[in-house]
Design brief:
With 316 residues, the chain is an alpha/beta fold. The protein has two domains: 161 residues, Rossmann fold (3-Layer(aba) Sandwich), CATH 3.40.50.2300; 121 residues, 3-Layer(aba) Sandwich (Rossmann fold). The protein contains ten helices and ten strands. A six-stranded parallel sheet has the order 2-1-3-4-5-10, with helices on both faces. The chain has a four-stranded parallel sheet with strand order 7-6-8-9, sandwiched between helices. α3 packs parallel to α4. The N terminus is likely disordered. One of its GO terms (molecular function) is carbohydrate binding. It is found in: Cell envelope. Keywords: Signal. Pfam families: Peripla_BP_4.
Length: 316
């Protein structure tokens, strides 16, 4: 997360140093993101709007437009409408789903638009000019390694997936790699769509189906909230750990308090959207091409370092 903040600050400084261009050279940067349907995306919307406000105020040669969409199909319509009604010099997109957005984004790319992809990668990475995301493999792997160590490499696990995206695949790969060669057994693994209510219901199903569950991994903190509530209502006592990921402040506070069931966390800051927008702006206003990939670290957050990741005034 610190790396993310430092990078954003550095890009801001570079933009300020560049100075304004003429109004005739004004560039449009469209930002397409999911609507705030859970905590993490609420943070994304917050940081995207903040970046747009700051850049539009400071740089008259740039116009940043933020559009939110409640579903993948709505997001496809939104970016197609923007592409049809205005010249988009750049599109910064956090896709609802990799599958449905890949072809529409490629069509926009083919018009000469600079493409920045954030978080949920497209199925064809050649489409993107810039990619900004957390290290999803490390989110899964570091969590798995904690469980291996604390559980002596033995026990029954249940896992909750998010939605079918590249980042979900990466998290699951990291987790499976992390427990490979141990006697930790995944009893069940199903999608709960990064939704607390769906996770609550799925965890209830797991609890009804499996008499012995030693640990749970919900690969997102919104789902973890639903899992914890289901465990609480069940009265089950054998579950040693229920872990998530993303760095939600409520979960960070559990780690800070030394919560026995949720003693660790992994970061995946929604502020990465702000970093992505600033990097895209720097491509046009900074007089230097910005291309490639930026992967943010995902170290294990423990009671010892949790305060560094706690932002009580943030929306997530």
């Amino acid at each position: 997360m610190l790396r993310n903040i430092v990078l954003a600050a550095g890009v801001t400084t570079a933009l300020l140093a560049a100075g304004p261009a003429s109004a005739a050279e004004k560039k449009t940067i469209a930002v397409s993101i999911p609507a705030a349907d859970h905590g993490w995306t609420a943070g994304v919307v917050y940081h995207a709007n903040a970046a747009a406000k700051e850049i539009n105020k400071a740089f008259p040669e740039l116009e940043v437009i933020v559009k939110t969409s409640p579903s993948a199909s709505a997001q496809v319509s939104a970016i197609e409408d923007m592409s049809a009604t205005r010249k988009m010099d750049a599109l910064v997109i956090l896709p609802h789903s990799s599958e449905e957005l890949t072809t529409p984004v490629k069509a926009i790319k083919d018009k000469g638009t600079f493409i920045t992809v954030v978080d949920r990668g497209l199925n064809d990475p050649k489409i993107q000019d810039l990619y900004v995301a957390g290290d999803n493999v490390a989110v899964g792997y570091n969590t798995a390694q904690f469980l291996v160590e604390k559980m002596g490499g033995k026990g029954n696990l249940v896992v909750l997936r998010g939605i079918p995206t590249v980042i979900d695949d990466e998290r699951i790969k990291g987790f499976k790699d992390g427990i490979a060669g141990t006697d930790l057994k995944i009893l069940d693994i199903q999608y709960a769509n990064w939704n607390s209510d769906q996770a609550f219901k799925l965890m209830q199903d797991y609890l009804a189906k499996y008499p012995q569950i030693d640990a749970v991994w919900a690969n997102d903190d919104d789902m973890l909230l639903g899992v914890l509530e289901a465990i609480k209502q069940s009265g089950r006592k054998e579950i040693k750990f229920a872990l998530g990921g993303n760095g939600m402040k409520e979960i960070i506070e559990k780690v800070m308090a030394g919560d026995a069931m949720t003693p660790v966390e992994t970061p995946y800051p929604p502020s990465m959207i702000k970093t992505a927008i600033y990097l895209t702006a720097a491509h046009f206003a900074g007089h230097a091409p910005v291309r490639g990939s930026l992967k943010l670290d995902a170290p294990l957050i423990t009671k010892a370092n949790a305060a560094e990741y706690h932002f009580p005034d943030a929306p997530f």
